[in-house]
């Protein structure tokens, strides 16, 4: 996350959290920016529907990290009830900015050439929009509830979502189902947002839709509870690692067990998906915490930390620049006109196989941003949302 959603204001900064955040953002940029969407290695694709690839882990890990960061950044304000209103207003402001940035990415660059058409067909849900909503709701729940109540809310969100998706008949269909276009979430998105404002690749459903925001909040709360436990001063590091590792393993096992009836599915953000990915995130963070913060093996962390402290900035700009490159045209070697991004990518295609050229482009994009972020880190430039 960006600094505004990170642990920079916490009493004890977790270098492992910065590392985990940075690695997650770098992975997000890798999978979002292949040179050619038709040539992508299988692990860098989302699952077709049910199931989970490494790529499907990235977004839930990000929301989990948002939750951990909330526990650190707002922990000192939790006991001061008088400051809750001000803190929630600050969270609301940040959430609105994030939501606005997400909408801008959906509108750009068409908003400058065909503004009316751009707004008529703008996709309202999205990655930054979901981050904004999860951040705001998780922050309010964290400030106003005890750890026990947060856990109860998490379980209730997962249970209610499961009941809605698997037992409530879908209007116009007549029965509950988990198919792409006929599930309850897809029907709700089409009814409220209309097809004009949904994911353009599908138009009839959206992977960041309204109803699936409910279990996405549960992912954020999963991170909140882990963050609260990591902050405890009355528990030694070894005990924390043991409990977190066991908790993560149990969550993964429960997620796999629930998968038998409510399949692990990123697009639907099923309850089993929340447990499975939240468990894996807990295991990974606890391992990073032990290695980086406790054992102090941290020399390898800097490339990822520089990504982590300006995460929202690089995510937003990494989405903006390809769109900008495609606005300009140049002449190809054969005399035809192609957009600037395609022209740059042709240099990779000239000496690599299609699938390796696509991967090399994505890696080059990560290294390009690493250079910029490294300079920003050295100069202590952290862009706050």
From TrEMBL:
<feature type="transmembrane region" description="Helical">
    <location>
        <begin position="358"/>
        <end position="377"/>
    </location>
</feature>
<feature type="transmembrane region" description="Helical">
    <location>
        <begin position="150"/>
        <end position="170"/>
    </location>
</feature>
<keyword id="KW-1133">Transmembrane helix</keyword>
<keyword id="KW-0808">Transferase</keyword>
<protein>
    <submittedName>
        <fullName>Predicted acyltransferase</fullName>
    </submittedName>
</protein>
<dbReference type="InterPro" id="IPR032176">
    <property type="entry name" value="DUF5009"/>
</dbReference>
<feature type="domain" description="DUF5009">
    <location>
        <begin position="48"/>
        <end position="104"/>
    </location>
</feature>
<feature type="transmembrane region" description="Helical">
    <location>
        <begin position="124"/>
        <end position="143"/>
    </location>
</feature>
<dbReference type="GO" id="GO:0016746">
    <property type="term" value="F:acyltransferase activity"/>
</dbReference>
<dbReference type="Pfam" id="PF16401">
    <property type="entry name" value="DUF5009"/>
</dbReference>
<feature type="transmembrane region" description="Helical">
    <location>
        <begin position="273"/>
        <end position="292"/>
    </location>
</feature>
<feature type="transmembrane region" description="Helical">
    <location>
        <begin position="95"/>
        <end position="112"/>
    </location>
</feature>
<keyword id="KW-0012">Acyltransferase</keyword>
<feature type="transmembrane region" description="Helical">
    <location>
        <begin position="242"/>
        <end position="261"/>
    </location>
</feature>
<feature type="transmembrane region" description="Helical">
    <location>
        <begin position="209"/>
        <end position="230"/>
    </location>
</feature>
<keyword id="KW-0472">Membrane</keyword>
<feature type="transmembrane region" description="Helical">
    <location>
        <begin position="304"/>
        <end position="321"/>
    </location>
</feature>
<keyword id="KW-0812">Transmembrane</keyword>
<feature type="transmembrane region" description="Helical">
    <location>
        <begin position="57"/>
        <end position="74"/>
    </location>
</feature>
